[in-house]
């Protein structure tokens, strides 16, 4: 009799264990992963805490959050990653990487990144200086809501392009010029040769990486 009771208790325990495992597997399978929107909101919240000096870990984990989202194709995160490379928030200054991520965000429609890319082409910062592209990107940013971009584009047209027909042609081009159709920016990376920086500067280039990462 005692043996039968013990056997029954043992079987109940085994069955209960398997039932628990099945329940855990079902729960795990039905859990909804955190969405990109939720992760982005959390990253922005953590950024604000770090910016106010309220995060014990500073900006490094925040940068990692935004970089992961940027690599998954989120345009807002791509724009933020570019900015964090320039402001050295959680990562070393790197003009190449900033331009790389701004270019992605600009082609995805982010007005702020479009303006940043326009400024990069204007100054030759990390890319080959191109006043036409600077004008086109800034005017695109203005169309998408960047308040200062149009004023800067007009300044480039007057002071750097200085050709009414050429500016007219660019304005006509803007009617069909779409950010998402543009090829990726060509990032200018130069070897660490002291005199080369000055030679390239004369040519209107401000190369990045390999010894040229200072502001």
Helical residue percent band:
55-70%
Largest sheet: none
Number of strands: 0
Amino-to-carboxy terminus distance: 86 Å
**Broad structural category:** mainly alpha
Low-confidence stretches: 5-30
User: Number of helical runs?
Assistant: 10
Radius of gyration based on Cα positions: 27 Å
Q: List the secondary-structure elements in sequence, H or E.
A: HHHHHHHHHH
Calculate the mean pLDDT score and round it: 83
Strand proportion, as a percent range, falls in under 5%
Structural shape:
globular
Offer a quick outline of the entry.
The protein has helices at 2-30, 36-51, 60-71, 75-87, 95-107, 111-123, 131-143, 149-161, 164-174, 194-202. With 215 residues, the chain is mainly alpha-helical. Helix 2 (36-51) packs antiparallel against helix 3 (60-71).
Notable characteristics:
215 residues, mainly alpha
Write the layout of secondary structure elements.
Blueprint: H1 2-30, H2 36-51, H3 60-71, H4 75-87, H5 95-107, H6 111-123, H7 131-143, H8 149-161, H9 164-174, H10 194-202
Helix pairs in contact: 2-3, 3-4, 4-5, 5-6, 6-7, 7-8, 7-9
């Amino acid at each position: 009799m005692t043996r039968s009771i013990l056997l029954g208790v043992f079987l109940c325990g085994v069955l209960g264990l398997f039932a628990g495992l099945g329940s855990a597997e079902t729960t795990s399978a039905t859990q909804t992963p955190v969405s990109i929107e939720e992760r982005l909101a959390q990253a922005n919240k953590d950024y604000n805490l770090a910016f106010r000096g309220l995060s014990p870990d500073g900006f490094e984990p925040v940068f990692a959050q935004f970089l992961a989202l940027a690599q998954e194709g989120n345009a807002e995160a791509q724009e933020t990653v570019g900015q964090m490379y320039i402001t050295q928030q959680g990562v070393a200054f790197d003009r190449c990487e900033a331009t790389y991520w701004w270019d992605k965000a600009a082609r995805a429609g982010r007005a702020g990144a479009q303006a940043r890319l326009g400024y990069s082409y204007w100054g030759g910062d990390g890319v080959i200086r191109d006043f036409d592209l600077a004008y086109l990107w800034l005017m695109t940013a203005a169309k998408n809501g960047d308040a200062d971009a149009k004023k800067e584009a007009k300044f480039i047209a007057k002071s750097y392009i200085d050709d009414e027909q050429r500016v007219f042609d660019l304005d006509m081009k803007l009617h069909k010029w779409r950010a998402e159709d543009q090829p990726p920016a060509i990032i200018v990376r130069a070897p660490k040769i002291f005199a080369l920086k000055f030679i390239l500067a004369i040519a209107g280039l401000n190369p990045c990486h390999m010894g040229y990462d200072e502001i």
